[in-house]
Amino acid sequence: MNRPSLGKLVDDIVASYAADKRTHRIGHQFLPSRARMVQTLEGIRQLLFPGFFGHKELTESNLRPSIEHLVASLREDLEEEINACLCTTRQCTLCRTPEKCDLQAQDLTQKFLERVPAIRELLALDAQAAYDGDPAAKSIEEIIYCYPGFYAISVYRVAHEFLTLDVPLMPRILSEHAHSVTGCDIHPGARVGRSFFVDHATGVVIGETTEIGDNVKIYQGVTLGARSFPKDERGKVIKGHKRHPTLMDNVTVYPNATILGGQTVIGAGVTVGANAFITESIEPDALVRQETPRLEVLKKRRRVAP
Fold first, then answer.
1. What is the 3-state secondary structure (H, E, C) of 109-142?
2. CA–CA dist 59, 53 (Å, integer)
3. Are 225 and 260 in contact (CB under 8 A)?
4. What pTM, to 2 d.p., does this model score?
5. What DSSP state is assigned to residue 28?
């Protein structure tokens, strides 16, 4: 068999780029680095949980200079990554006003860093909710350092702030990183109240327009999803509609339950049992459960030796 020439192979591949411009960025600003963003995320976690992460023991005497050094480093990294995200979504080829982009990135970085104390307050409540809600938890330290659900919530809280600040790309990159690490998919656009606990985390899906109140507890395998997607006259999905459910305060959702629809409201104090499938609103203080399936136990047939 004759091998095609290298030139012919390259010509065909390059021609495919011209045939479909949706899958290349030739001539555009280079995409922001996912690896750098994840590295920056770890720096943010050091800022949120001083003494838990990093390679330096913090003491009362070295705390302020250590945090000052960390904030300065994070500020530089965030400004660079936010700038890249802004240029990417603006489809910049060569930025004609780099000073304007730099100033906007600096402003967004400053606003995020100013929100760190408020994020810490929310995460302290989330950690306490996990400790109070899981009899296996030995300490708050164990929650912060080890629990995948808490990691997913921590990244969500950070990503949600960037989304609120209208930073493009970065919120989804961060949340998909947490999804890949924990198996827990929390869209940064979801609105989550105080004292939120995701137990075990694996297989949890929380959609973009989900609203969750205070003191809500969710177990593994729970889906808070969309029932259908409204489309325009061309068959394209219409963006911006509320597609995902609302969970009011003090709701508990047990493993593998599915709750769908933007008009579905789970009332305050409701407990949703395992494997329930819900597409309609539930009144407050209700218990929702699937009818217990019938279990059948049969004797195995004995094999007769040949």
1. HHHHHHCHHHHHHHHHHHHHHHHHHCCCCCCHHH
2. 14
3. yes
4. 0.88
5. S
